[in-house]
Amino acid sequence: MDLSLLLLLCSWMNLRSSSVAAQDCSEAGLSDPLLTKNPRKESARLATAGFFSILSFSWMNPLLSLGFKKPLSPQDIPSVVPEDEAELAYSKFSQAWDSLLAEGSSSKERNLVFRAVAKVYFKENIFIAVCAFFRTLAVVSLPLMLYVFVDYANSDHRDLRNGFFNLACLVMLKLVESLTMRHWYFASRRSGMRIRSALMVAAYKKQLKLSSLGRKRHSSGEIVNYIAVDAYRMGEFLWWFHSGWSLTLQLLLSTAVLFGVVGAGAFPGLILLLLCGLLNLPFAKMLQNCQTQFMIAQDKRLRSTSEILNSMKVIKLQSWEDEFKKKIESCRDDEFKWLAKAQLTKAFGTFLYWMSPTIVSSVIFLGCALLKSAPLNASTIFTVLATLRVMSEPVRLIPEAISAIIQVNVSFDRLNKFLLDDELKMDEIERSGLEAYGTTVDIQAGKFSWDPETKIPTLRNIHLEIKHGQKVAVCGPVGAGKSSLLHAVLGEIPKVSGTVKVSGSIAYVSQTSWIQSGTIRDNILYGKPMEARRYIDAIKACALDKDMNGFGHGDLTEIGQRGINLSGGQKQRIQLARAVYADADVYLLDDPFSAVDAHTAGVLFHKCVEDSLKEKTVILVTHQVMEEGRITQLGKYEGLLMMGTAFQQLVNAHNDAVTVLPLASNESLGDLRKEGRDREIRNMAVVEKIEEDIEKTDIPGVQLTQEEEKESGYVGLKPFLDYFRVSRGWCLLWSSVLGQVGFVVFQAASTYWLAFAIGIPNLTNTMLIGVYSIISTLSAGFVYARAITTAHLGLKASKAFFSGFTNAVFKAPMLFFDSTPVGRILTRASSDLNVLDFDIPFAFIFVVAPAVELTAALIIMTYVTWQVIIIALLALAATKVVQDYYLASARELIRINGTTKAPVMNYAAETSLGVVTIRAFGTVERFFKNYLHLVDADAVLFFLSNAAMEWVILRIETLQNVTLFTCALLLILIPKGYIAPGLVGLSLSYALTLTQTQVFLTRWYCTLSNSIISVERIKQYMNIPEEPPAIVDDRRPPSSWPSNGTIHLQELKIRYRPNAPLVLKGISCTFREGTRVGVVGRTGSGKSTLISALFRLVEPASGCILIDGIDISKIGLKDLRMKLSIIPQEPTLFRGCIRTNLDPLGVYSDDEIWKALEKCQLKTTISNLPNKLDSSEVSDEGENWSVGQRQLFCLGRVLLKRNKILVLDEATASIDSATDAIIQRIIREEFADCTVITVAHRVPTVIDSDMVMVLSFGDLVEYNEPSKLMETDSYFSKLVAEYWASCRGTQNLQL
User: Per its UniProt record, what Pfam families does this chain match (predicted)?
Assistant: First the structure.
């Protein structure tokens, strides 16, 4: 007793002394940009703690004290202890992995990941095993102490010294049990955390090295899952592993104790116990199967969810929300089927666990009575019951440990398969040996193929030699292999034969822009130090200076995930600026001018390619003479024109598109030069402004991507009530609670009957055992009812929350997706929903159960020795205080952890999408380092949460042990005969369970408080403001609407947020029926916003749009969007077959689909596929189709819909001139009587329009026929002249 009081006193003193130290904990925050080398934060106190501090977890005091005074913020969290850093963990793992690979162990033999982990972490697990072993010995010895105490109470010759010696032994045992268990739990989770970090980093490193074949096999969603689910699971793996073997040992030792106490009488009972254990095996197998199937179904759902969230704009424009929602719901139904099966199997398992001790004890007593192996007195009976209680823990947990270990095994296999997958061959490209010849890129007899198994290679007979400083344009129609040629230079496409040599560093600009979330400045600097002059030159060269002024925060504007709040042109120019700033030797530009207007393209070409990169080697892909993956012609521009071949045809197609322009008069060209000078002067002013801004590090105000919201402090009962309110599960909750109360009452009644009946002289053993068995069996019925109702409650809640969350997300306005990173929504759809599915329902009942048991134990102890209630109540009060003190910090730790996990996953997903760019720039190492920081930031919270949990449990155990020791002391001191021996046994057997029950209660209460945060987070997204309704019943337009297609804009004003500046500033005009209207304007003039307004992706601040006299803001969104067609700026395809991509709603016949495909030039391609329309030939986001082909798919969708109004949003930006001409022709023929609105970057696309609308900074500058505008000195004629100048300027390229 004195020892535990000493422990209590010391921890209290530590608490007192901690307040001073609490101040040291706040340093630079986790939210600081990772790109700057921020000073190291102080690491957790464990690194400098003394022996006693480590033993009692007192090194946590400063943090807990700080957390009690104020809600913890990320700045207060210390950094991870050096020996727990991810870098160290990974380097150890990587050495072991490499040595295993070097030994040539085949993956068939055994799982290499597991072997590497075992090799690294075996030693530190010996200490954990020793702790677990001593804890097991202590637990098994406790029933023997009960035997000794009851024997002592029963003996005639009492010696107080013996009594006190027994008490000292009890104190010793409890102390050993408490300390070894706490340190085993903590050390196993800490070691698990190191394994987790090592595997997360290994998976991330692997995706940086994965070849194109490997990327085909593992989508970015799956890779994120390997990190988020499989590697993450390792945090608990060691705990389960050590539990598994130590509980088995506990079972064996308890069996020995039973035989020691009751001899042969124990035999029939043990056979029964063994049977119960064996019955658990099929359950474990069923559970494992359910778990595996659940994981497969969950993978599928998350893959779909991720794809849908990334393409939400297209889905909303086409009004396909319902169809895609059904797709996700059907995935969830599949997942739910396995979840229900798993939960109900668990419920039956629970019934078995609780039944077994009851039946087994009855059988043992019966065995004793029949075999007369031991007298049925108080000491025997209560020792047997206490031993069986010690045995029930292993019987209950071993199957769970087995299933957890099986889950981990599945994860090990998945990781193993991934880590052994095909890597990029670094030796495909020779990076030196060309300098002497002045050659930068040299490909000889190159043959390349994306899929090595196909007969026809993607690129063949490639002979290419590029001298230093040359500018080379790569031209050709859609799907000719232009981008593949750049990938060949990068080494991304598998080489079949030939040689590739490249000298110098590379900068690469991909066709589909890849932007990281962060600021614009971070994206341009891309990890390089800031050099103001070079930075400003890069911004000017890429025509970003104007845009910088337009952004509220200049170049410190936060970019949403995947650059969602930027226009296509801005993303492309930021990519270009990143390349220019990188100052590399070789520039590979994959059609960088496709997403920008002609004027900007001209500026980019002159300033960027000709000026900034004049000393550099540039390979520029444009859509203009590659055929079927061969280089057909090489030569200078004029030379190729003379030959009059394929190149001539391409140029003619381009010129046909251009010569519709009346030639600009000399005056307008003169004006153009003058305007150029004016622009120079304006640009200087802009540059100065940017220079000033560079000095500042942050500009306050509202960014688009907000910090993730999290509640702070104690949120009270709200999330708990939300859980039942949303799921309407009150009835089930009360049924569960009643089931638990019934169970405890009957359990107590059965043991009380034993204590009471032993004192009745003439009672037969049959009667004694019979009554006990009947009461106990009744209690098992209650426990079954409780388990079933709990499972149903959980399932009901899962269903309700999932449907609420999915509905809310699909009904959210577009602004929500623009300002919310996909990772945030996905975290809620994956890990938070997982907590809701598996943890919360059982956590609820595991809080109710021990609370009821604790009450019962205190009532019984008080009934036997009333004095104990004084200490017990004091201990309970102190427990509550300690618990609340701990929870103040624990809650915030878990909440902050909620916001550190998402960045780890986001970063992995982002890397997966941009891996080609990352490798091309040679920044793999920097991304890897950043990822290590993110993993550490996440790991330190796991580490501190566990340490805090052990801190509180150690203190609570100490307090409850005081109650136990008081009870034991009273039983020693009370004179013989004062209390019946049966009641001594009863009281002590309940007192021994006190600590365990209280700890169980605290642990689950804290788990529940932490898990309920997931309810809070999902609920946050269930209350997103909805966009207007899909259908307004009393305002449905006639089915023939719009029959004409006349569009009136009346004083239309648009802003994206309530207090944001206007983007369209009062536009009024009319698009007459059947006219072709071209919308032109420089980047950022409001062209795309106009389209968003037409589709009501954003609601007008004032003014309105009338289509055929109907105000579109009054009708339902679905009614509006189904009647408008659009070919969007970024062509989007979905994973699956050709048919669902063209007709997701399934409303058109095969015949109609084939006709549409024929018109949009895809028929021959698709006819060659094995299953034609039903070929699952579209991979994630349509990556295996070229951008041009994807654009043709979008055209196919429009041809099927046949609406009166068609919008082309910069649709021809990614297509060569020949394909462009085809599309324009098809649209002219097929939509002759429709209103066609074209948002154009290339002036020729609108020059033959009936009307042209010119926008500038949100104002309508001109609206007239193009021929009339060309005759005057109009804004439009200047745009045309600029386009001409830029076209003429591109002809001095070598081809």
Answer: ABC_membrane, ABC_tran
